[in-house]
Specification:
It is found in: Cytoplasm, Cytoskeleton. Belongs to the TRAFAC class myosin-kinesin ATPase superfamily. Kinesin family. It comes from Caerostris darwini. Pfam families: Kinesin. GO terms for molecular function: ATP binding; microtubule binding; microtubule motor activity. There is one protein chain. The chain is of the alpha+beta class and 426 residues long. It contains 13 helices and 22 strands. The strands form six sheets. Strands 1, 5, 6, 9, 10, 11, 14, 17, 18 and 19 form a ten-stranded mixed sheet that branches. The chain has a three-stranded antiparallel sheet with strand order 2-3-4, with helices on one face. It has a three-stranded antiparallel sheet with strand order 20-21-22. A hairpin with a 2-residue loop joins strand 3 and strand 4. Helix 10 runs antiparallel to helix 11. The radius of gyration is 22 Å and the shape is globular. The two termini are 36 Å apart.
């Protein structure tokens, strides 16, 4: 994958729009083309186009699943949704629990734990998640009770959010709950198209540390889910490229145009915090997928979303696996002799250690309820919990369960691990 891959997902026409005979401006012509109904011969080409009848599972299987597999193999990956307010961006990622519609997040989680189950050999795996939003150039941690504005730091060319909380997870349901918690804290408000539209950019990050004990190599990879703020253009006419009311989206559009025309030397990622954070996803070393969600009854914003996607398809990325133990939490825990002792004794050793960072401090209470090593496993024994196969139905039942977590198989033995209800998050 040497460039950004782009798909278009068309939102179904609402029943009220059908009754009012609202004009439909856009239709899918094939599995990779969409056209404007007034000009049937003018076709827009993409890597995939999903029509109104195709659900989120189809989007995941045909467009996203290969990227998730590569992330577990050590590559960095980003999946983004872009489009106007109410076009289905958040619905695509999260789904609709009331209507029992699964989003991409459900299928990502299921796939990740199936891949972990299939890992062979002597592996150590640790998963941690974080989430933040960007609104009017302010960064806020969505998994923290504080409402502080956070800053960006750059280390060895890698941009990170300072003091952002991270949470170690080992159950599918925990990842899902963290995302829902973050989404509930997101800044929303009335817009022209929605009474509860998202006004901020949301970035949900999953970090995977995979240690191969045969050679000691540690691969640290991350998967970012990015839900952009709703697209609102300031010029209601079909020009070449959008000028958005959201400045950070305008800056991102300009960077994409520069990269499209191979003007990488002229790109200024410093213009906004959003572009700084996504530097690795646009013209960097990450595998990047962009899903443009569009409303077929809207002419202008849909046109601009398609233009954005077409330009993004020309952006080249150079992805590669990097073996590094520098930022590994596994190594930090090893350094504190954490992995080889009884849980209570290990917690006591942690309390006595000097110079602990905040992530390790937060893990002390977490570790009191788990056998050591944390997430040290050859495989997740999903079959013992879900039956002979991890079907969608069985996985959904597992996600719905708060009392019976997945079973961890360690090098020494296999035991059931439970967390008291009030100790699920650290």
């Amino acid at each position: 994958m040497k460039r950004i891959h782009v798909a278009v997902k068309i939102k179904p026409v609402l029943q009220s729009e059908k009754e009012n005979k609202t004009t439909v401006y856009w239709k899918a012509k094939s599995t990779n083309t969409i056209y404007q109904t007034a000009y049937p011969n003018k076709v827009f080409y993409f890597d995939d186009v999903f029509n109104e009848q195709e659900d989120n599972e189809t989007v995941y299987l045909h467009f996203c699943s290969s990227l998730v597999r590569l992330v577990i193999q050590g590559y960095n990956g980003t999946i983004m949704t872009f489009g106007q307010v109410s076009s289905g961006k958040t619905h695509t990622i999260l789904g609709d629990e009331d209507k029992k519609v699964d989003g991409l997040l459900f299928f990502i989680i299921r796939h990740i734990f199936e891949l972990i189950e299939d890992l062979y050999g002597n592996k150590e795996i640790l998963i941690r998640v974080s989430c933040f939003e960007i609104y009017k150039e302010e960064i806020r941690d969505l998994l923290s009770s504080t409402n502080e504005s956070l800053n960006l730091l750059e280390e060895n060319g890698h941009v990170k959010v300072s003091l952002l909380s991270e949470h170690v997870v080992q159950q599918p349901r925990e990842i899902f709950d963290f995302f829902r918690e973050a989404e509930s804290r997101r800044i929303k408000g009335d817009t022209l198209f929605s009474e509860n539209g998202s006004k901020s950019h949301l970035i949900f990050r999953m970090v995977f540390e995979i240690c191969d004990n045969t050679d000691g190599a540690i691969h640290i990879s991350e998967l970012n889910l990015v839900d952009f703020a709703g697209l609102l253009v300031s010029e209601q006419e079909m020009n070449e490229f959008p000028k958005c009311k959201n400045d950070s989206l305008t800056f991102l559009s300009e960077i994409i145009l520069q990269l499209r025309h191979e003007q990488a030397k002229d790109v200024n990622y410093e213009r906004s915090k959003l572009t700084r954070i996504l530097k690795n996803s646009f013209g960097g070393k990450a595998l990047t997928l962009l899903i443009c969600t569009v409303i077929p009854t809207n002419l202008i914003e849909t046109f601009y979303a398609l233009q954005f996607g077409i330009a993004a398809m020309h952006v080249k990325n150079e992805s590669k696996v990097v073996a590094s133990a520098e930022k590994s939490l596994i190594c930090k825990l090893r350094g504190l002799h954490y992995l080889n002792f009884d849980p209570i004794e290990s917690a006591a050793r942690l309390q006595q250690a000097q110079g602990m960072d905040e992530t390790i401090k937060k893990m002390i209470s977490y570790c009191e309820y788990f056998l050591i090593p944390v997430l040290k496993m050859k495989t997740y024994n999903l079959k013992s919990l879900c039956g002979s196969s991890s079907s969608t139905l069985r996985c959904r039942k597992s996600l719905a369960s708060h009392s019976q977590p997945f079973i961890i198989k360690t090098k020494q033995n296999v035991k059931h691990h439970y967390i008291p209800e009030n100790k699920k998050k650290v």
